Each structure stands twice: as structure tokens, then as C-alpha cells.
Amino acid sequence: MNGVKVLLFGAAADRAGVRQTELSVHSGVTLGELWPILVDRYPALVPMRDTLAFAVNGEYARMEDAVSPGDEVAVLPPVSGG
Amino acid sequence: MFRIVEESIDVGALVTGAFRPDCGAVATFVGTTRVDESSGASVEYLEYEAYRPMADRKLEEIGAEIRERWEVGHVSIVHRLGRVDPGEPSVVIVVASPRRGPAFEASRYAIERIKEIVPIWKREVWSDGYVWVGSQVGTRSRHEGRNTASLR
Fold it and tell me: Which ipTM was obtained for this model?
């Protein structure tokens, strides 16, 4: 067990009330498996689920992609730059 | 040149920086803060945040996509973060090409791609609360989510 750094942005940070947290995971856990651990800590994120994208180490990732201790996971609401 | 900055953008310098002897056209797109009004309230300013350095890399990717698709001599994209007051630029795109077609098309492409793939978020701060654009999250309870359908 070791930590994955989770960064939250925009509306997700707003709802969760934090911009960064750390989750203990086994190596090889998928983003899809990480999500329930995250929302267990921050239930206010649940309604956003279908709108969110995720990045692992700075690149867009799919829910079936694996993360390892030491990775950086970003929770990305719909982007709205410009 | 692809940059994310926290200070005001010198649009004139970006435009003249694109002038080249092999290009006869320079197209510029500038996105600025617009004051929306509804139900007696109005937008006071916008506030932007980004996931860096991913956002910086995505701007560079857009530049690479443009060079694959069009013959261009110069591409600059600068996006501002933090508070941007009404009438001030939040994003500036400058494309130079030998003839006008690619410059117009590529500058349009750049702003559309920014709104698709660059991890930057905008919060509208109204006189009666705020709204994260694109998400139904904010403190304007009467109007929350008002912009979602039109912007996503």
C-alpha cells in the first residue's frame, strides 16, 4: 500500500472542498476502482461523475487505466478555457 | 509561442511578433470577458485556473496539430489565469500564413480545440454569486447551470 496523489480542479475542487488529497492504493488499481475510494471521502463529488475526465501523470486517461503508488491523478471537470 | 500567464496579455506585441517576410496574412483571435446580465445580476469578472503543466503541453499540442493541417509560418497562443476584468483579454491566438485562408481557419481551430482539450476552467463571478462554467456548480442557486447547455 502506498499513496496516489489526487489533484482536483474547478467545480470538483469546489464540491470536494479540497484541491489535493492522497489515497492509499495497491499497485495496478484502475481509475474506475479508485473512484469509489475518492467519493467515499468526498461524497459531494458523486453527482459530477458523468461530467468528469481524469488524467494520470498529466495525460488524459480512461477508467480502465491502471495507476500505481507515486502517480498523480487529476480530476478534471468539463474544461472551459477561452 | 505557447504560454500560460498570470498577468495581462500584450496583444499588440503578439501580433507584430507574428509578422514575417514569407507570410502575407496574420489572423488574430482575442477572447475577452463579457458582462452577462440576468435577473438583475451581472458578471463582475471571470477567474481562470489551470492544471499545469498539462495545460501548457496541450497548448503546444494544438500548435503541432495546426502545423500538420495547414501551411503556417507562425502560431502563438497565450492564455491568462486568475482574475480577468470585463473587456480584458483572457486568450490571444495569432497565426501567420503565406495566404489568408490557413490563418483564418487555423486561428478558429485553435480556440475550438482550447475549449475541448486544454485543462483550464473559468468561474463567472456575478454580483449575486459564482458559477463554474461547464459544470452545474456554484453559489448562484437560482441560476445554477444556466450556461451549461450552451457552452458544452
Answer: 0.95
